[in-house]
Amino acid sequence: MTLIAVFAAAGFALAMVGLYGVVALSVSNRRREIGVRMALGAQTSDVMRMILGEGLGMAVAGIAAGLVGAYLASRLLASLPYGISSTNAEVYGSRQRSS
User: CB-hemisphere CA count at 13 Å for 84?
Assistant: First the structure.
């Protein structure tokens, strides 16, 4: 279980670094647009909301794609778990309970 937790943490860290890289590239490519928006009177909070909203949208899309992929993979691996349904929501949303 510890090994799974370590791999999960590493995957999460890699996902966060990747999301940061994509958002940073997007901001870098849109520097002039952001400058024009600020020159025309946009508040800093408005620009931050726009950028963070795009990052949040990418994160939500990634989570949705991951859940769909997990559901499809569970269909392929349905014969492996014993005593639980392969699409049990508790499996996706909680930690394993010790006996």
Answer: 12
Distance CA 39, CA 32 (A): 10
pTM above 0.70, yes or no: no
Q: To 5 degrees, how large is the angle CA 67–CA 69–CA 72?
A: 110
As a whole number of angstroms, the distance between CA 90 and CA 78 comes to 15
**pLDDT tens digits, one per residue of 16-33:** 899 899 889 989 999 999
Say if CB 63 and CB 19 are below 8 A apart.
no
Angle at 19 between CA 60 and CA 70, to 5 degrees: 50
